Amino acid sequence: GGFSYGDYLRSGAMAARSPIMADVIKKAEAGVPVMGVCNGFQILTEAQLLPGALMRNASLDFVCRTQTLQVTNADTQFTRGLAGRTYVDFPIAHHDGNYEADEETLDRLEGEGRVVFRYVGNPNGSARDIAGIINERGNVLGMMPHPERVISPLLGGTDGAALFKGIFEGMSVAA
Q1: HSE-up of 133 (CA within 13 Å, CB side)?
Q2: E strand or H helix at 27, and its extent?
């Protein structure tokens, strides 16, 4: 997450070509879990680890607020901690969070269960209300909302903690 290179070019485009990304891509191709939040999601699409692109919000305004998401696939290594949850509330803070892809790609994502989060009341114009997707193998997650900002009641919520707890429990099972 976080802004890269000032986001003067398409968000994440320059960061996707930084030297460290060659290793990230190799690790992802080897099956290592990779999660990109906000600008990290943008980087993952620019690096072609995930399909589509993140464009300017349809309103052309920066959006910063708590956003309700529908959990559309809780059967992934990233979302298993949200099993039984239909909705979560995560903060969003972006100007370039409008997920776009061609219809064929969107249909494929839908048909393969790779859309893991959808916006309830789409804040940015994302195609089909998409807030987060996984790759074909299921080991790369990109999402615009910020689960790391709601991991404690002191931060205003714990919905993100459930996501991370599921990820860590899955890692210990696999080890």
Answers
A1: 30
A2: helix 20-29
Catalytic residue among 46, 94, 95, 146: 146
Nearest to 4 by CA among 66, 96, 67, 140: 96
Give CA separation, 159 vs 88, 98, 131, in Å.
Answer: 6, 23, 15
The dihedrals phi and psi of 25, each to the nearest 5 degrees, come to: -60, -45
146 belongs to the catalytic site = yes
Q: Annotated catalytic, 148?
A: yes
Query: In angstroms, rounded to a whole number, what is the distance separating the alpha carbons of residues 157 and 159?
Result: 6
Report residue 51 as tokens. 């399909």
Is the overall model pTM greater than 0.90, yes or no?
yes
Q: Which residue has the tokens 């960061």?
A: 15
The 3-class secondary structure across 149-167, one letter per residue, is HCCEHHHCECHHHHHHHHH
CA-to-CA separations, 41 to 15, 47, 155, 156, in angstroms, rounded: 11, 10, 23, 23
Amino acid at site 114: R
Q: Which of 95, 112, 148, 169 is catalytic?
A: 148
Instruction: Please calculate the CA angle 133-3-76 and round it to the nearest 5 degrees.
Output: 20
Q: Quick: pLDDT tens for 60-114.
A: 898 999 999 999 999 999 999 999 999 999 999 988 899 999 999 999 999 999 9
Which is catalytic among the residues 38, 46, 94, 95? Answer: 38
